[in-house]
Amino acid sequence: GAFASEAAAAVLHPLGEGVNEVLEPVGLLLHIGVMLVFSVIVVNSKHLHIFTAPLNVLFSRRPDGLGAAQPMRSGGKVLDFEEADPDTDVFGRGKIEDTTWKGFLDFYTCTECGRCQSQCPAWNTDKPLSPKMLILDQRDHAFKVAPYLMASEEQRKDLHQDVLALLDKPLVGEDGVIHPDVLWSCTNCGACVEQCPVDIEHIDHILDMRRYQVMIESSFPSEAGVMLKNLENKGNPWGMSEMKRAEWIEELDFEVEIVDDKMPADTEYLFWVGCAGALEDRAKKTTKAVAELLHIAGVKFAVLGPMEACTGDPARRLGMEFLFNMLAQQNIETLNEAGVKKIVATCPHCFNTLANEYPQLGGTYEVIHHTQLLARLVDEGRLTPITPVEEKITYHDPCFLGRHNKVYAQPRDIMAKVPGVRTQEMHRCKDRGFCCGAGGARMWMEERIGKRINTERVDEALTTDPDRVSTACPFCLVMLGDAIAEKKNSGEAKESLEVVDVAQLLIRSVK
């Protein structure tokens, strides 16, 4: 500043006092003119974020924009499905005018920096979803129809035909503002929200549009319909009998309490096994490992067995909010009648739903992930890893455990306590970890566009030359396991490589 002033003085001083007296007001008027022009231009440019960003951060509904999905709203109020009127209530977002005020604020806050896009697993595997363009395309459409949105009923009659024609353009559709392939590519991993410097909540936008497509238009990938039907009829995505939920217990050499009516008084935790943990063979290994570890540590626990049903996470993330509400209310009634206070879950999706979303419907419990509980038991000396596990491990952060709930340290702490284990991080880890591809109900949809997300993640894992890939989520276990099997078939991965849960590593050392 001082150097610039000296230079300006050297130029202006020889001009004389009279000239400088004229230049001063001229310069002031030019400055005011530039500011006035900028104030007009800024409203129609990305620079509007200068004014809206502080407001968007202030009104962000969560400190980091992750965790629970936003409940469905109509008229600014949470929608009660028992009293909902299809003629007057809004179900999701079918038109740009259905966007919430916070959604509009998101549109005008985007700085177009592209950080969300750079971290998106869909975009990075050649799919059409760009979180940045998802926001900008809606913003541009909102600008175009703004004359209609802001006009009175009387004024709307006189609007130009070009504006009225835009009203017929669907928000989601082959020729819509958002292409269906964009909408259904999202895994709800939250990488976009995590990276956004101005707290834009992309997942809320995607879920609202999905809700309208599923509940009103019945337009969604056909294979996901099988999952919804199974959830409705059998209470799990695979359509298996509820009696199979307790079969894993038969493979243990100790008894596991199954809640019949009330939780036993001396039982500390309800072990929420989850659909995958009870019914999927690979995930059952995690379930049995956790049960054994809790038994060794002397932790009293019980399971619901056939009384347990899906938390509803796949239905909600797909957009079928009604089915989510039905399953959630059923589970909350079961948990409350049993007197459940504390829950431990192995599935991050169950964990997130029970801890963060059930309180929206009146189900409030102390919920902990199994890695959090096991890490504490190791620290307390109730579990002591002794047997060396001489292996090189790379850990994959589950999105709904890491980004959505900030549990990064405990799985790594457990592995650090196991003798012989050597860990090496993938270059995308922790808050920048790369999704396995199963979230957002993608577990039950075919991946037809671009490279498979789980293959991309396994390619990254292979760069660390691991003996094992570890994780802490049954969905990740399945997705990464499938990709590793493909790599073995093509000779790109060693035959001994497999994916295991952190609990499986710990039980090998404790036993």
Main features:
3 domains, 511 residues, five-stranded parallel β-sheet, 22 helices, 46% helix, Rossmann fold, single chain, globular
Describe this protein's structure:
- By secondary structure, the chain is of the alpha/beta class.
- 46% of the residues lie in helices and 7% in strands.
- The strands form 3 sheets. A 5-stranded parallel sheet has the order 3-5-4-6-7, sandwiched between helices. A 4-stranded parallel sheet has the order 9-8-10-11, with helices on both faces.
- α3 (49-58) crosses α4 (101-109), α4 (101-109) packs across α6 (131-150) and α18 (370-379) crosses α19.
- The chain is globular, with a radius of gyration of 27 Å.
- The mean pLDDT is 93.
Give the SSE layout.
Blueprint: H1 2-12, H2 17-41, H3 49-58, E1 73-74, E2 77-78, H4 101-109, H5 115-119, H6 131-150, H7 153-156, H8 161-166, H9 180-183, H10 191-195, H11 202-215, H12 222-234, E3 257-258, E4 269-272, H13 275-279, H14 281-297, E5 301-303, H15 313-318, H16 321-338, E6 342-345, H17 348-357, E7 366-369, H18 370-379, E8 392-395, H19 409-417, E9 422-423, H20 453-462, E10 468-471, H21 474-489, E11 498-501, H22 502-510
Parallel strand pairs: 3-5, 4-5, 4-6, 6-7, 8-9, 8-10, 10-11
Antiparallel strand pairs: 1-2
